[in-house]
Amino acid sequence: MAYLLMFVTLLHLITLAMLFIATMEKSWWVWDGMENSDLWYNCRFDNSTETWLCASSRETEWLQAVQVLMVLSVVFSSVSFLVFLGQLFTMSKGGLFYFTGLCQVFAGLTALAATVIYTLHNKEILQDSRELTSGHFGYCFILAWVCVPLLICSGVIYIHLRKKE
Q1: How far apart are the C-alpha atoms of 137 and 68, rounded to whole Å?
Q2: Is residue 147 very low, low, confident or very high in pLDDT (cuts 50, 70, 90)?
Q3: CA angle 44-74-51, nearest 5°?
Q4: Burial 129-152 (b: 16+ CB within 10 A, else e)
Q5: What is the phi-psi region of residue 55: left when phi exceeds 0, alpha when psi lies from -120 to 50, beta otherwise?
Q6: Rounded distance, CA 132 to CA 66, Å?
Q7: Higher pLDDT among residues 116 and 165, named by residue
Q8: Which residue from 38, 12, 44 is spatially nearest to 23, judged by alpha carbons?
Q9: Would you tell me how many other CB atoms lie within 10 Å of the CB of residue 97?
Q10: What does the pLDDT look like over 22-43, one tens digit per residue?
Q11: How many whole angstroms separate alpha carbon 76 and alpha carbon 79?
């Protein structure tokens, strides 16, 4: 049981880091490696100065929904970890980590909703940007998709995890 506890704690920290990176980094949509778009900015690499020039993304309803859901997912996962630490030291022997697990499952469901919205509505989200056929989804988008099953699985493990002495 101690190994399961260490595994689920490590899994939680890894998914929380991945979720934070997916939310904050600049690579949800990429064009030729020289231009990319994320949830907050559209950036273009300037060869003459060798720097990234970024401008705020045009706010659409779909983009705002994805932003809110990804931030909410990070918040749910963070709260889940803090509650887990509190329960680990205060809960009586034999107690279950229901609240921790539910927060983690909600984090997974909000990340799922955000990635599905971005997948289905990327034309509306990126409408002022370059032609979409010359671009592809970036690593942050893929990282967000990878987080979804990991968050849900860790939530289910938390729900079934029982505190031992």
Answers
A1: 20
A2: very high
A3: 15
A4: beeeeebebbebbebbbbbbebbb
A5: beta
A6: 18
A7: 116
A8: 38
A9: 25
A10: 999 878 888 877 788 888 888 8
A11: 5
